[in-house]
Amino acid sequence: MREAVADDVAAMRAEIDDMIASLEAKIDRLNRISKRGAAHAAEGASDIMLNAISGLTDQVSGRMQDTARSASDEVTKFGNQALRRIVSEIDHRPFLTLAIAAGIGFIAGLARPRE
């Protein structure tokens, strides 16, 4: 009877060892799959981040272009208004304009180094 029990115990140990070996193999396989999945997930996350950054860059660029365009329009408008005002003043006061131009020419002539 002892031999039968010992044989049964040995058979159970062998069966348990087989189960442990099978479990270890499955855990190794699961680890390999997880590593591949993690690498794939990292690539996917990288793509998502790149797309998000690209989208933000495009939005910022568009806003900057709009702002630059708006600023350019404002400067152009201001320049046109200033030019119209100068022309208007010249039309209303031609002699004063001539006197100012002559004064500026005289001062420029005085500032020029003599040879």
TrEMBL record:
Keywords: Membrane, Transmembrane, Transmembrane helix
Transmembrane portions of the chain: 94-111
Protein name stated in the entry: DUF883 domain-containing protein
UniProt organism field: Pseudorhodoplanes sinuspersici
